[in-house]
Amino acid sequence: MAARVLNVNVGVLGHIDSGKTALARALSTTGSTAAFDRAPQSRARGITLDLGFSCLRTALPPQLGPGPGELQLTLVDCPGHASLIRTIIGGAQIIDLMMLVIDVTKGMQTQSAECLVIGQIACQKMVVVLNKIDLLPEGKRQSAIEKMTKKMQKTLENTKFSGCPIVAVAAKPGGPEAPESENPLGVSELIEVLKSQAYLPSRDPSGHFLMAVDHCFSIKGQGTVMTGTILSGSVSLGDNVEIPALKVTKRVKSMQMFHTPVTYAMQGDRVGVCVTQFDPKLLERGLICTPDSLHTIHAAIISLKKIQYFRGALQTKAKFHITVGHETVMGRVMFFSPAPANFNEEIQENVFDFEKDYLYQEEYLSKDSGSSEENKENDQAGEVQLPKQQWALLEFEKPVTCPKLCLVIGSKLDTDIHANTCRLAFHGVLLQGMEDKNYTETFLPKLKVYKQKHKEGQVERVMDDYSVIGRSLFKKETNIQIFVGLKVKLSTGEDGIIDGGFGQSGKFKIRIPDGLKPDTKILLTAASKKKSKGGKGDMTKEDESSKNDSAQPVTISLTFKRYVFDTQKKMIQS
């Protein structure tokens, strides 16, 4: 029986030129087809453009179970160049353990921070690698390493990686041009730390097969090979797999894991799958899956959290780069929350309830957001109450193909690359995709998101004990007929009902079923007398003072809600 091989995917992330590829090379024993900047564009530009993969095999450490076996650490070398953040996000979704590579002479840089954010969203464990220690003068090397270690510990103390191991190395002493005879420093210690951090990732061979392909090439006479990491399910020789982007299904002819032929592979494995011939240029990266198991969607509802390092508000109607599964497209957002009475209600995870009412928000609610009009009713003593969960409707500029419940990240990738700011804005889970192109007509009316509307006017005069005339609530051209029957409240406490228009200037009649209070009548009679008295010659001092004594005018409040996607635009009062 072959000794078992446990595969753990280790992401190598960090700022450009922190020495990630050199570190992956120093650690690796087996390079895969995509490893070490083999792509012609990468070699020409001298930077990693795509995910490079290679592996390191070592004896199984004791914490991973008894018996003989090997631990295979698959190293995913993610590009550090800012414009390639889409690729990094794609890479982070297949990583069990992350190495954050820091240039010891520079410390944390913008992209190191973004990589840390992606790690927090998509990864469980991290090791920090302080690289390029050969550039520190020998006499001061130890103290410089200690200083940077303390700095990193401080940076990480409020993240889920607080207290993670920090290892100092020189992956390629003397830099890229130095002779190969120069031995790396600290790499064997790093391997021991990686072994100690390795864990049994939860792997499940059941469910639909889904694989993230990051490399595609053809072999003459054999077929086309797609290499990637299996995100869910399993695959065997002879299976049919669908390539949704090309709308074709192909049969699996052969499979390899790091140049070793295999007949079966499952979630978490890095594998090359050879299928019947197609043009590899058509699929540089993407997803392959069990036929008909993915959906192509035009819009989605997601649950989300704002990324704390993102500066500025997340505004409804704003556009973001949305990474869904392994695709990044432009999308417009609309944020909404539970109704204020339900802000503290426990929300069932990964499920969206279409029966409930939701409150439209002008922006994602956070400690630093201005309290929106809709949320004012819930805002006592100036303290903004925040809901336990918030959601967004995403509308994509072009359809995306993805699995259900996949990770979603929203970013502002058009922000200046050199600006020292985090471009990742929010992350969440896709709860409901909309496959129908006409989703605005077929699907959105089911989504009960409402806006709270509030209008104020004034009582102009009393007609009799049970009715008054109001003004300033509607514009002259408003069709008052649609408001007939709606309830209003007077500032003096009476409840009223809009009875109809009065004249042509936007005035209207209000019926007061329980009648006006005596005090209100006195107030309104005094106010209308004053109006008729005004304009008769000059005011005496006495009039002046009585004017100051007179109470404020009686105001009329009309409150109702309107569902954003209701085609009839009905006004609803509780």
From TrEMBL:
Stretches with biased composition (Basic and acidic residues): 535-547
Keywords assigned: Cytoplasm, GTP-binding, Hydrolase, Methylation, Nucleotide-binding, Nucleus, Phosphoprotein, Protein biosynthesis
Required cofactor names: Mg(2+); Mn(2+)
Subcellular location per the Swiss-Prot or TrEMBL entry: Cytoplasm; Nucleus
Signal peptide location: none
Tr-type G domain boundaries: 5-202
Domain of life from the UniProt record: Eukaryota
Molecular functions (GO terms): GTP binding; GTPase activity; translation elongation factor activity
Catalytic activity: GTP + H2O = GDP + phosphate + H(+)
GO cellular component: cytoplasm; nucleus
UniProt cross-references to Gene3D superfamilies, sorted A to Z: P-loop containing nucleotide triphosphate hydrolases, Translation factors
Stretch list, region Disordered: 527-551
Pfam family, one: GTP_EFTU
BP-aspect Gene Ontology terms: selenocysteine incorporation
Its biological purpose: Translation factor required for the incorporation of the rare amino acid selenocysteine encoded by UGA codons. Replaces the eRF1-eRF3-GTP ternary complex for the insertion of selenocysteine directed by the UGA codon. Insertion of selenocysteine at UGA codons is mediated by SECISBP2 and EEFSEC: SECISBP2 (1) specifically binds the SECIS sequence once the 80S ribosome encounters an in-frame UGA codon and (2) contacts the RPS27A/eS31 of the 40S ribosome before ribosome stalling.
Name of the protein this chain belongs to: Selenocysteine-specific elongation factor
Native species: Certhia brachydactyla (short-toed tree-creeper)
